Each structure stands twice: as structure tokens, then as C-alpha cells.
Amino acid sequence: MRSDKNTSAPLGLKIAAGLGLAFLHLPILLIFLYAFTTEEKSYQFPPPGYTFKWFAAAWNRPDVWEAMGLSVRVASISTVVALVLGTLCAAAVSRTKFFGREAVSLLVILPIALPGIITGIALRSAFSFAEIPFSFWTIVLGHATFCVVVVYNNAVARFRRISGSLVEASADLGADSFQTFRYIILPNIGTALLAGGMLAFALSFDEVIVSTFTAGQQSTLPIWMLEELIRPRQRPVTNVVAMIVVLVTFLPILGAYYLTRDGDQVAGGGK
Amino acid sequence: MTAVLFQQVSRHFGAVRAVDSVDLAIAEGEFFAMLGPSGSGKTTCLRLMAGFEQPTGGHIEIFGETAEGVPPYRRNVNTVFQDYALFPHLSILENVAYGLMVKGVAKAERLKAAEEALAMVKLPGYGTRRPGQLSGGQRQRVALARALVNRPRVLLLDEPLGALDLKLREQMQEELKSLQKSLGITFVFVTHDQGEALSMADRIAVFSDGKIQQLGTPEDVYKRPKTRFVADFVGSSNVLPPDFVEGLGFGKHYASLRPEAIDLGDGPGRKQFSGRVTAASFLGAANRVTVEANGARVAAMLSASISVPAQGETITLSFLPQDLHMMDGTQ
Questions:
Q1: Distance, in angstroms, between A224 CA and closest chain B CA?
Q2: A136-161 vs A116-129: helix axis angle to the nearest 10?
Q3: For residues B99 and A170, what is the distance between their CA atoms, to the nearest angstrom?
Q4: Which CATH code fits B238-326?
């Protein structure tokens, strides 16, 4: 944040901006605060006392570990699936011309524009129609639908900035297709893929709606939290887990932002 | 030995005949220019030589070996791209060493060769920089070094000087020419700039509509254009219509006549015609005068020792019959 003394905003505007930010972020701070409270049953303000015991309690709850493990595995596999499919799709759309290219481009992006509830219902009906029982893989499939979009969007933007003659130049200098991919394409789209992958992981990790429709009896971490809020056992444990979710999703998104911010010096420099 | 041979080569894109039944033979060690306006097929011909395009008909040989179906990475031919196509994520030295790297040349050896290539294009010590840190002219030299380090038997240059400013372009023209002489490599370069082709090439192929209109030395192409297109595109020659030529006592053909070959007045053995002056300008060493004669517009370079004729004045002009060149076609 930089502010110039000569062009300082009026006080009213500053207060309004401050209030806006507070409205956005204070509830998150409260979540953090109640992770340390000694009061188990209700949200009493200010908390009567502070303690670290809920971290230990969370650590010792097998259901927390189970849900977290499932979420990490689902997010990892969805991200890998999305990386492979999203990159291939981006390469096809940006490097070649074929009939229906624009339509494919739109269809790939559609899942993220559609409300999650539609994707969820559609997948659930499809699974029951095809008589596929709910499993780890049905959750992965559900998550992959929107993870692919994130990777695709990142990769396609980068692919478009790689001048087509770079690939030809590489071939001209004696590199076969594999060498061209390894030495020219991958280094140029690498940061975009990493950013896309991190975003996909974060999206998958805290996804609730599609998971509700495709998880069956399994609990991913967000579903576990929802259940805990309805039937609380040790309420602050949920807050501890919420803190972990914030860390796990916020750090990759921050990383992705920094990776793609300086993308200009990586790509398109051949001109 | 023939470096590049095209026999009835065609490259059609659907109904578009980008290259249409082209025959050409480029000799080893030759500096060969393919000249033409955009869309004339010259770049497609270059891409056929590089292997980025495959012919839809005909036969291509590079140093006696059939080239159809051989991918670019198995051809002993390298290209300097119009946009240079330097790899933005690699240093200049790594860019130049790339061709040797993918062929598996040891690191120390390939970096040494790359340094030498950079010195050859007068960029010693630039190896650690990135392409983004160089000027257009410097990138062009890097692109040249990157191609030459592979010791190609044919170097293809796609509008290599197109993006440079005038002064740099003239300097690079000379450098390319001397580099070609000292290396003895066959250079094939594509350009739409007739001045560039005339000053650099040993031979020029003039392209239009996917066909070669004329293939010859710069002097041939400039002084003795075979077709109206060549006369229009290459020189500043007058293209005289068949009726006008017939009226002067020649056959009914299009003919070309260079403005420098025309003088004021008449003389023994000269063909004369009169015309009304439509434009006249003083150029220092000469006066450029345009006249309208028998429905044809004729430009003449007249000696500056005579004062500039007034507009609307009728003057008599003449030329030697051997300076008139008949061209193909009466249309």
C-alpha cells in the first residue's frame, strides 16, 4: 500500500473503506479467536479464558484425521487429473484450429460458471443412472470438473503468449517433439501450471456443494465441519480445523497470485 | 552441386494455391533471393525447404536427398525466423547452444561453439543476457548465430531484415553478404524489398500468385523483366502497352523501358515519340518528367542541364531500340 500525501482520500472514504474491510475479515478473526476459548458450548464474547487444549483435542480426534485425509487425497488426485486434462485441452485449443474450437473452449469453462448445485445434481443423477456406487472416485470426478477449468484458464493464457515460431524454431534446430516439450513448452508454461494446480487444490479442498452430492456417506473436511456445526461435540475443535483450512487454501492461492503476476517476462519475449 | 531442387512443387491449402508447380534449382554456395509481395508463395517455399510444410505435389531434393516426409529436425537446414523466435526463458548463450544441446554435444564443447558463433556475429560477451534485454538488431544477430552454430548446409532467412530500421538494415545487408562469402554456406532468403534482393542476391526468383515469374541475376531481373508483373514490382521501369509499342514500329507486345534510357530530343538511330508533360520535378542530378503519349504514361529521367519542362508543354523524347525489352503477353 502506497499513498501519496497530495492525493490523500477524504476521511469519510477512508472510514468507509475500513468498515468494508472489517466486515469482510472480522468474522474470520472471530473464528480464530474462538479456537482458543475455554467456553465449549456457546460463543460468549469476550471469551471467558484462553487455552490451547482444543488443538490437542483436534489432534486426538480420529474423525478429524479421517476427513482431512480424504480431503487431501481428493484434492491431490483432482489436481493431477486437472493438470493433465487441462493442459492437453489448452494446447489443443490454442495451438490448432479445428471445427468447434470455440464451442469446446466454452464447454470447458462452463462448469465453473454453472452453479455448483447444478453440477452436483447432474453428476449424482449420472452416477445413479450408470449405477456407479459413491466412492472416493466419484468425489474426485466431481471436483475435477471445476479443477480442469482453473488449470485450463491458466494454461491457455500462457499458451497464447508463446509465439508459434518458438516451437518451429526448436524443431528447426534439431529437437524432436519430446525435446521441444521438455525444453521449450514446459519451462514457458511451468509457472502457469503450478499456479493453476495450486488454485485447483485450494478449490477442491474447501468444496462443499458438489461434494455433498457425490460423496455418499463419506465426509470430506468441509462436510465434516458442516456436520459439526449442526451437532457440535467440542465446538472449538471446529474452529481449530477452520484455521487449518484457511491456511491450506490461502497459501496456495497467494502463491498462485505471485507466480502469475510476473508472467510477462516469462512468455512472449521472442518478439 | 545443387543445394535445393524443386520439381513441379505445389502446396495447395484447399482451393488456395500458395505454391503452384514451382521449378527451381539453387546451387551450392549461392546467395538466393525469393522476392515477391505478401501472399505470393515465397514464404511457403521457404517453409517447404525447412520442412514446416509438406508439398501437395512435386518433388523436393536437398543436396540430392529426397526431402518430402523428412521432419524439420532431421534436415541439415536452419532457419532465421522473421520474429527471430529466440527462446525467452533461456540465456543468449543457451539459445545459441540449443541446437547442439538437443543433438547431445557435451556442455563445455557446445558452450565454446556458442561463444565462437556469438563472436562471429559481433556479440561477444552477450551470452549471459536474456533475449528481452537485447535490441532488435542484436536479437537478429543472435538468431543468426543460433542457426549458424549448427553448421547447416543451407541457411534459410525469412524476411531477416524486415523489422530493422533503415540504417541497421543496410549495415546488416553488408554483414550478411560477407558472412555468406566467408562461410560458403548456401543462403536462401525471402524478402518483399526489391532493393534488398537486388543488392544482396546472386540470383533472384520473383514470385507472384504461387508461381515464379522470372528467375535470373539481379541485372537480368531489373533490366530485362520478362513480365509486366516483374517490371512493375522490381524496377521503376515504364511498362508500355502493346498498342504504343506497335506504334513505334515493334511487335504488338508489352515492353519495358527504363526511365534512364529516355532522352530529350531526337538523334540518329533513336526511336522518338512526343508527349504532353503531366508532371515534372527537379531531383538534383536529374529531372524526373512524366509525359502522356498515345494514351500511355511514360516516366523519363532527363539530364539536369536542361531546365525543367513546364507542365502541359509537348516535348519530343527518344530512346535506343536496344533499351526496349519485349515482355510476355499482349493483355
A1: 45
A2: 130
A3: 8
A4: 2.40.50.100
Q: What is the pLDDT along chain B (331 residues), one digit of tens a residue?
A: 899 999 999 999 988 899 999 999 999 999 999 999 988 999 999 999 999 999 999 999 999 999 988 999 999 999 999 989 999 999 999 999 999 999 999 999 999 999 999 999 989 889 999 999 998 889 999 999 999 999 999 999 999 887 788 888 888 888 899 999 999 999 999 999 888 899 899 999 999 999 999 999 999 888 888 888 888 888 778 888 888 888 888 888 888 888 888 888 888 888 888 889 998 888 877 888 999 988 888 988 888 777 778 888 898 999 998 888 888 765 5
Give the other-Cβ count within 10 Å of A9's Cβ: 10
Q: Kindly list the strands in the beta sheet with B2-13, ordered across the sheet, starting from the edge strand earlier in the chain.
A: B16-27, B2-13, B57-62, B65-66
Q: Does A201 lie in the same domain as A68?
A: yes
Q: Where are the domains of chain B?
A: 2-232, 238-326
Q: Is residue A3 part of a domain?
A: no
Could you tell me if B167 lies within 8 Å of chain A, comparing CB atoms? no
Q: Calculate how close chain B gets to A172, using CA atoms only, in Å.
A: 5
ipTM of the complex: 0.80
- Answer whether residue A271 is part of any domain: no
- Which CATH architecture fits B2-232? 3-Layer(aba) Sandwich (3.40)
DSSP β-ladder status, B65-66 and B57-62 = antiparallel
- For residue B88, the chain A residues in CB contact (below 8 A) are 166, 188, 265-270
